Amino acid sequence: MTSRTDVENVEAANTAFYEAVERGDFEEISGLWLDGAEADDISCVHPGWPVLSGRGEVLRSYALIMANTEYIQFFLTDVRVSVSGDTAVVTCTENILSGGPAEEAGELGPLVGQLVVATNVFRRTPDGWRIWSHHGSPVLAESEDEEDGDSTP
């Protein structure tokens, strides 16, 4: 039987991950991923990217994203946590609002919304729950015609 505390701790680790990305806190992001002997086993798939393997490659991707994203905010919905022994899986929908660099200094660039379904896998360590794998896939929006059952162009 899963301890309520385990679920709460995994939820807290998952929330800390998204908040660190929002703040652009590379040090915190680094501390949330597995390291040591398991560093080569971590993986990450950002929407539209190939699979990234190993701690160096994964953390470089976050540095690149943060360097090229002026603003990002996550609104997580449909969050589900499952814990089995020393492994936990979190699935959720990332409702993302982001913006790139502005054309003029001192202004925010255009904001873009995106839906991504994500799976975050955590491992229990002596220092708490750490991310083992992150996989995000874009949600393709249906057109109004598809929603109404009309498939004519």
TrEMBL record:
InterPro entries: NTF2-like_dom_sf, SnoaL-like
Any one Gene Ontology molecular-function term assigned to this protein's record: isomerase activity
Record keywords: Isomerase
Signal peptide: none
Gene3D superfamilies attached to this UniProt entry: 3.10.450.50
Residue intervals of the SnoaL-like domain: 10-139
Keyword Acyltransferase: no
Protein name: Ketosteroid isomerase homolog
Organism of origin: Streptomyces wuyuanensis
